[in-house]
């Protein structure tokens, strides 16, 4: 479960609930070994933009080592905030401190406006009990304003 949450958070920030989540949007699941994401929950005015995002392998499965690469543009300075993840299988929100997550990517708060590249590799455990997930990750700034919102679907 922890690996799936980390996966969701990394995907979102590497590309991150201002509006209420409609759980019907989270069904049905994608075919085995698939991964997809979209920014449909983001607003045009959100100050974080995804310039490029790749995942390798493209269709990760349990037991794979996954490499995420993202290039984002941040259009405002950020001194703090939060990352909230909601998974369809576990609809209880999971929140993390934004600066703590950024520090693991060797980026320290405050973060100045600009373009940033993130790379992260991690293994998906072969014993992962939940193999399918849809969810939403939202990143908010120090004033609780949305920076970005990402929907994702994974069937490992």
Could you walk me through the main structural features you see in this protein, from its secondary elements to its overall organization?
With 156 residues, the protein is mostly beta strands. It is 13% helix and 42% strand. The protein contains two helices and eight strands, in the order αβββββαβββ. The strands form two sheets. It has a five-stranded antiparallel beta sheet. Strands 2-3-6 form a three-stranded antiparallel beta sheet, covered by helices on one side. β4 and β5 form a beta hairpin. It is globular, with a radius of gyration of 15 Å.
Short note summarizing the structure:
This protein is mainly beta and 156 residues long. It has 2 helices and 8 strands.
Low-confidence stretches: 1-7, 13-32
Side-by-side strand order of the widest sheet: 1-8-7-4-5
Helix content: 10-25%
Shape: globular
User: From the alpha-carbon coordinates, what is the Rg to the nearest angstrom?
Assistant: 15 Å
The run of helices and strands is HEEEEEHEEE
Distance between the termini: 13 Å
Structural class category? mainly beta
Number of helices: 2
What is the number of E strands? Answer: 8
Oligomeric form: single chain
Beta-strand portion reads: 35-45%
Q: Mean pLDDT, rounded to whole units?
A: 78
The main pleated sheet reads as: 5 strands, antiparallel
């Amino acid at each position: 479960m922890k690996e799936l949450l980390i996966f969701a958070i990394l995907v979102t920030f590497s590309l991150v609930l201002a509006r209420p989540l409609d759980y019907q949007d989270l069904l049905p699941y994608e075919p085995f070994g698939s991964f997809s994401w979209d920014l449909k929950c983001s607003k045009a005015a959100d100050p974080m933009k995804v310039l490029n995002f790749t995942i390798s392998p493209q269709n990760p499965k349990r037991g794979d080592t996954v490499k995420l690469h993202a290039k984002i543009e941040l259009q405002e300075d950020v001194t703090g905030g939060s990352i909230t993840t909601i998974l369809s299988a576990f609809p209880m929100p999971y929140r993390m401190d934004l600066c703590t997550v950024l520090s693991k990517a060797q980026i320290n708060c405050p973060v100045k406006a600009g373009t940033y590249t993130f790379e992260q590799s991690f293994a998906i455990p072969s014993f992962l009990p939940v193999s399918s997930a849809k969810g939403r990750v939202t990143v908010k700034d120090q004033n609780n304003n949305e920076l970005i919102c990402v929907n994702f679907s994974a069937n490992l």
